Amino acid sequence: MSKKESVKTYISMLQALLVVFLTAYLGLLGYIIVNIDENFSTMQMIYGFMALCFISVALVVVIRKFLKMTKELEKMK
Fold first, then answer.
1. CA torsion 55→57→61→67, rounded to 10°?
2. Which of 8, 21, 67, 76 is the most buried (most CB within 10 A)?
3. What is the pTM of this model?
4. Per-domain residue ranges for the chain?
5. With contact defined as beta carbons under 8 Å apart, do 44 and 28 qualify?
6. Would you tell me the crossing angle of helices 42-76 and 3-35 to the nearest 10 degrees?
């Protein structure tokens, strides 16, 4: 497999990870919003916001890597 093909494969994997993290982020955010009025303890809120922070950081890392690999692919052409 050439370097160009491996970069394309890596970009495809990053796109899939981006979709997974966005889905998890929106799902968790929706869950928090829907259940905020019910018996939603402080610890559950803390864990929920910690998970949102973790997913946000993971999204930023994946997006930066995606952009870096896209620029590298453009240089190869």
1. 90
2. 21
3. 0.72
4. 3-72
5. no
6. 160
Residues in the chain, overall count: 77
Angle (CA) 14 19 23, round 5°: 145
Q: Which residue has the tokens 């690999």?
A: 69
Q: Is the Cα torsion angle 31, 35, 39, 41 positive or negative in sign?
A: positive
Helix (H, G, I), strand (E, B) or coil at 48: helix
Question: In terms of C-beta density within 10 A (0-12 exposed, 13-18 middle, 19 or more buried), how is residue 14 classed?
Answer: buried
The single residue listed with the structure tokens 């402080």 is 42
Note the pLDDT tens digit of each residue in 6-46: 888 888 988 998 899 899 889 988 887 887 776 777 787 78
- Tokens standing for residue 13: 């994997």
The whole-angstrom separation of Cα 13 and Cα 16 is: 5
